[in-house]
Specification:
Oligomer: single chain
CATH architecture of the largest domain: 3-Layer(aba) Sandwich
Helix content: 40-55%
Low-confidence stretches: none
Order of helices and strands: HHHEEHEHEHEEEHEHEEEH
CATH topology of the largest domain: D-Maltodextrin-Binding Protein, domain 2
Radius of gyration: 24 Å
């Protein structure tokens, strides 16, 4: 009696192999971990072999799993080719892009506009959050591409720009002259600890006057001259300005804008969006580079 392999289970098996574990694979597949584990178990029971070696910290393929992997890739590739050819535009679907609040402008809107023209049937879901949050989501396979602001870069990342942090306050404001210096930051802002350390090293007393999970709250408080804040140069929000403090405040370190792309990708459009972001940052860097 003929037996048929379950393509859905094969897709989960390949995703686990590529992602190195069930957790990341479930994010790529938009399934629960238990659903992915159940599909792998069903596949093992049907073939009566163990496909995954679960004895170590990281999931590895058994000899039977390695043998199946090549066949599974061919079967899925042929299935996807038929479906793309006969049922839909191959460039439709969704790409999830994560970008920190403070670097959405000015590059990202231009990139999204170009991408929409090139891939009109592809939806882009833009997640605006903090670097720590975005990296956690990316690690779970919930984002296809993320940008980060960090003082270093992980091996899988590519640095797009290196920018200094600058002090910002209300236009014509005086909050920066007060002591202790009043600061305004989001709870998860990756810059706040480094700024506090720089102030301590400079012997400048400070207090956290405004804390919030809302970027809008921070911007409103700073624009009202209740406190000061720091942003990457060139990303100053409306209604605030760079503080010309003349050395009264410490100079701050430079930060990296990094790009991370999921591996594997589920669509060529993901790679093209990443390429558009790289080109846009290269053009932006050239435009703002000092003479």
């Amino acid at each position: 009696m003929a037996r048929n392999l379950d393509l859905t289970a094969l897709r989960s098996f390949v995703a686990v192999s590529d992602a190195g574990g069930v957790t990341r694979a479930s994010g790529f597949l938009n399934l629960t971990q238990s659903a992915v584990s159940m599909q792998i178990k069903r596949l093992e029971e049907m073939l009566d072999v163990a496909l995954l070696d679960r004895s170590g910290r990281k999931v590895a393929l058994t000899a039977a799993g390695e043998q199946l992997l090549g066949y599974a890739r061919k079967m899925l590739a042929l299935n996807d080719e038929v479906m793309d050819r006969l049922t839909r535009d191959p460039h439709e679907g969704e790409v999830v892009l994560g970008v920190p609040h403070d670097i959405v402008y000015p590059v990202i809107p231009q990139v999204l506009q170009h991408f929409a023209r090139a891939f009109p049937r592809m939806k882009v879901s833009l997640i605006s959050s903090f670097t720590r949050v975005l990296k956690a989501q990316f690690g779970r396979g919930e984002c296809d591409i993320i940008l980060t602001t960090e003082d270093g870069v992980d091996p899988a990342g590519v640095t797009l720009a290196e920018l200094p942090l600058v002090w910002v306050g209300a236009p014509g404001g005086v909050a920066w002259k007060g002591r202790p210096l009043k600061l305004a930051y989001e709870h998860n802002c990756i810059f706040r600890q480094g700024v506090q350390t720089a102030l301590d090293q400079a012997g400048i007393p400070w207090q956290m006057a405004v804390e919030s999970d809302s970027t809008r709250t921070i911007e409103a408080s700073v624009s009202a001259d209740l406190a000061v804040h720091t942003v990457l140069a060139g990303s100053e929000p409306p209604y605030v300005e760079k503080i010309n403090h003349g050395g009264a405040l410490p100079e701050l370190k430079r930060m990296l804008v990094n790009l991370y792309v999921a591996d594997p990708v589920h669509s060529p459009a993901v790679l093209e969006l990443a390429a558009m972001i790289r080109r846009a940052y290269a053009a932006h860097n050239a435009a703002v580079k000092p003479a």
